[in-house]
Specification:
Keywords: DNA-binding, Repressor, Transcription, Transcription regulation. This is Transcriptional regulator, AraC family. About 50% of the residues lie in helices and about 15% in strands. The chain contains nine helices and nine strands. The longest helix is centred in the last third of the chain and has 18 residues, at about 160-175.
């Protein structure tokens, strides 16, 4: 969970973005890498995998101010501590609160199918690439029907939504690095800044500047 800044977490099947006031849940025994933004601070809380109520898949969670302070406090405790009755109660309350936190759509699914994996890598490398589904299908010797079916089965999204999700991830990363809105819009291949802002607001409920102030710099 970031205390300041932002963190990107990569697992085998997705890239997860974790802004401030959020946390990423990663089940036990899942290999992953974490990449913090410049100057970021974050904390880790480990939950015994005997807690069967926790989700069995990764997700980004919105974290309430109260739960955030609980998690920071728990993460600062020495690992060898033996919880007393009061600490056990705090852990139970924090766990209950964690279970109530809503999941956020802040991930980019990574397909396992060879051709789609190649396309995902290309989009990550060049997010301004505006090739259509028809063009990607042709470039990879597939019919459009096969391509759209594969994308849906591998990512759970349409191609348009899948690429837009990547744009949200990249935009948030760049905001945390203090890029200008114009520069982010250009990197993502939008025809105008207003078109980028409209997309961002539609997906996250607020324009980029407001999101930066409330969720990254605050």
């Amino acid at each position: 969970m970031p205390i300041n800044g932002m963190m990107t977490c990569r697992v085998s099947d997705a890239i997860w973005l974790v802004p401030k006031h959020h946390a990423v849940w990663i089940p036990a025994h899942i290999p992953h890498t974490n990449t913090p933004s410049k100057g970021a601070e974050f904390c880790f809380v480990y939950i015994d995998d005997s807690r069967q109520e926790m989700p069995h898949s990764c997700r980004t969670l919105s974290i309430s101010p109260m739960l955030r302070e609980m998690l920071i406090y728990l993460s600062d405790l020495p690992p060898e501590i033996q919880p007393d009755e009061n600490l056990e109660k705090l852990i139970d309350v924090a766990f209950f609160q964690l279970m109530q936190m809503p999941a956020e759509k802040l991930s980019f699914p990574l397909p396992s199918e060879k051709r789609l994996k190649k396309i995902a890598d290309a989009l990550i490398t060049t997010p301004s690439d505006r090739r259509t589904a028809e063009e990607w299908a042709c470039d990879n010797a597939m019919s459009v029907r096969t391509f759209t079916r594969l994308v849906k089965s591998q990512t759970g999204m349409s191609f348009r939504d899948w690429r837009r999700q990547l744009h949200i991830i990249v935009a948030l990363q760049r905001l945390s690095e203090h890029w200008s809105i114009q520069a982010i819009s250009d990197e993502l291949g939008y025809d105008s800044v207003s078109a980028f802002i409209t997309m961002f607001k539609k997906e996250l409920g607020k324009p980029p500047r407001q999101y930066l102030i409330e969720n990254i710099n605050k």
